[in-house]
C-alpha cells in the first residue's frame, strides 16, 4: 500500500509538471496578444490543450536530435552528422572526454531551432530523472501521468524517444573540419572532428560556480584578510569563444542556454617568479646556513638513506645511489652560487661582506682591480671551498649512531671539486 501511495504521488507530480510547462507556454503566447484578438486566443486555447500540444510536439520532435558532439560549432552552415557518444573507453582514460561526464549529464539538442521547446519539455526532471529518460524506458508511472489512451501514449513515447536516434547516415560536409591522417601504407584516414558540446557545457557550468554565494563570500574574506571556513577558487586568464552570433539557438540548445559562450582554459606555461637574489652579507660561509636551507630535502633523503644502509655491505649500487644524492646537493649549492655570481661585480668589497676570502673569490668572480684579481688567480680557493663543503656535509650527516671521517670527507671533497673545476676551467 505504501508503494502504491508513493507511485500515485509521483504520478501526480509528473502530471502537474507537464501541465504547468504547457500552461506557461500558453501564457507566454497570450501576453503577445490584445483582448480583441478573440479568434487567435480561441485557437491558442485549443492548441495548448495537453493532448493537442503533445500530438504536435511528437510531430515536431522529428526535427531534433540529441547529441554529445555537434558539427555546427565548427561552421554554422555545416550540414554533416552529429553523434551521441557517452561510452567509457579504457584506452582514453588519460584524456578528458565525454566519457568522464556524470551519468545524469545534460546532452545537447540540434536541429530546427523553432522546435527546441520540445527538447526543453523532454528535459523536465522529477526525482533526478528527465521525461526523456522515462520515455526511453517506457516508464509505467509516466504513462499513467500522460492523458489519452494507450495508442496515443505509445505514439508519444516512440516519437519522443526517437530524438536519441540519428536520422541520417554518418556523413561529413565541405564546411566541416577534415583531417587527412597518414597511414604506413601511403593511404590515409579522413578524420572529421566534432565539437564536444556536452563536455563543454559541463566545464562551463563548473566554471560558473565561481559566482556562487559561497565562493564570493570566501573571496571577500580573503580580500579583507578575514578568516573563512570555505576555500576560494578562480580560473585566471579564461578566454571566451562565441558561437552563433545574435542567434545562438541556431547552433544548439545548450549553446543558446550559454548565450553563445564557451570557455577556454589558459594553456600557458607558468611564469617562474624567483625572489630577488641578495648578496650573502653577514656570514663567513654560505654552507652552514644558506646551503643548509637550499638543500633541506635532498640532505634529509641522503641522511635517511645512509641510516637505512649503514648495516649493509657497501655495494656498487649503494655507492651509486649515495653519489646521486650528494650530486643533487652539490647542484643546488652551485645553482645558488651561479645566481649570486650574476650580481653586479664588486659586491664583495662592501663593508657588510664577512665572507672568507676563498668564498668571496668563488662567489664574486668578475670583481676587478688589484690586488683582488691577482690574489684570486694565485689562491687555491677551489681546494679550500671544496674542503669546507666536505666538512659541512660530514657535520650535517653525523648522528650518535652514524659517524663520518676522513674517507667520507675525501669523497665529498672530490665530488665538489670536480664540479667546481668543470664550471671554472680557468682554475684548472
From TrEMBL:
This is Type I-F CRISPR-associated protein Csy1. Pfam families: Cas_Csy1 (PF09611). It comes from the Bacteria. Keywords: Plasmid. InterPro entries: CRISPR-assoc_prot_Csy1 (IPR013397).
Amino acid at each position: 500500500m505504501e508503494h502504491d501511495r508513493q507511485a500515485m504521488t509521483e504520478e501526480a507530480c509528473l502530471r502537474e509538471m507537464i501541465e504547468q510547462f504547457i500552461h506557461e507556454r500558453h501564457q507566454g503566447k497570450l501576453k503577445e496578444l490584445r483582448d480583441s484578438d478573440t479568434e487567435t486566443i480561441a485557437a491558442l486555447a485549443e492548441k495548448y490543450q495537453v493532448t493537442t500540444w503533445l500530438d504536435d510536439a511528437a510531430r515536431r520532435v522529428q526535427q531534433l536530435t540529441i547529441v554529445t558532439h555537434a558539427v555546427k560549432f565548427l561552421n554554422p552552415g555545416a550540414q554533416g552528422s552529429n553523434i551521441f557518444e557517452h561510452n567509457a573507453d579504457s584506452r582514453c582514460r588519460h584524456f578528458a572526454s565525454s566519457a568522464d561526464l556524470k551519468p545524469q549529464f545534460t546532452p545537447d539538442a540540434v536541429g530546427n531551432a523553432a522546435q527546441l521547446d520540445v527538447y526543453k519539455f523532454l528535459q523536465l526532471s522529477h526525482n533526478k530523472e528527465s521525461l526523456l529518460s522515462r520515455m526511453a524506458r517506457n516508464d509505467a508511472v509516466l504513462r499513467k501521468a500522460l492523458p489519452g489512451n494507450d495508442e496515443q501514449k505509445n505514439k508519444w513515447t516512440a516519437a519522443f524517444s526517437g530524438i536519441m536516434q540519428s536520422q541520417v547516415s554518418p556523413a561529413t560536409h565541405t564546411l566541416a573540419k577534415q583531417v587527412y591522417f597518414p597511414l604506413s601504407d601511403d593511404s590515409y584516414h579522413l578524420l572529421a572532428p566534432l565539437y564536444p558540446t556536452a563536455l563543454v557545457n559541463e566545464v562551463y557550468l563548473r566554471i560558473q560556480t565561481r559566482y556562487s554565494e559561497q565562493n564570493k563570500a570566501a573571496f571577500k574574506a580573503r580580500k579583507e584578510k578575514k578568516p573563512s571556513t570555505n576555500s576560494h577558487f578562480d580560473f585566471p586568464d579564461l578566454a571566451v569563444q562565441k558561437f552563433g552570433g545574435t542567434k545562438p539557438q541556431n547552433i544548439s540548445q545548450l549553446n543558446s542556454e550559454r548565450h553563445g559562450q564557451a570557455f577556454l582554459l589558459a594553456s600557458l606555461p607558468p611564469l617562474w617568479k624567483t625572489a630577488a637574489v641578495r648578496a650573502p652579507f653577514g656570514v663567513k660561509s654560505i654552507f652552514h646556513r644558506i646551503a643548509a636551507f637550499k638543500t633541506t630535502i635532498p640532505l634529509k633523503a641522503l641522511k635517511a638513506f645512509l641510516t637505512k644502509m649503514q648495516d649493509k655491505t657497501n655495494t656498487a649500487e649503494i655507492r651509486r645511489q649515495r653519489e646521486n644524492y650528494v650530486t643533487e646537493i652539490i647542484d643546488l649549492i652551485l645553482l645558488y652560487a651561479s645566481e649570486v655570481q650574476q650580481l653586479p661585480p664588486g659586491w664583495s668589497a662592501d663593508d657588510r661582506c664577512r665572507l672568507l676570502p676563498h668564498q668571496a673569490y668563488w662567489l664574486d668572480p668578475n670583481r676587478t682591480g688589484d690586488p683582488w684579481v691577482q690574489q684570486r688567480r694565485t689562491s687555491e680557493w677551489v681546494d679550500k671551498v671544496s674542503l669546507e663543503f666536505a666538512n659541512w656535509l660530514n657535520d650535517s650527516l653525523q648522528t650518535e649512531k652514524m659517524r663520518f671521517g676522513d674517507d667520507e670527507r675525501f669523497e665529498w671533497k672530490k665530488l665538489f671539486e670536480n664540479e667546481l673545476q668543470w664550471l671554472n676551467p680557468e682554475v684548472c
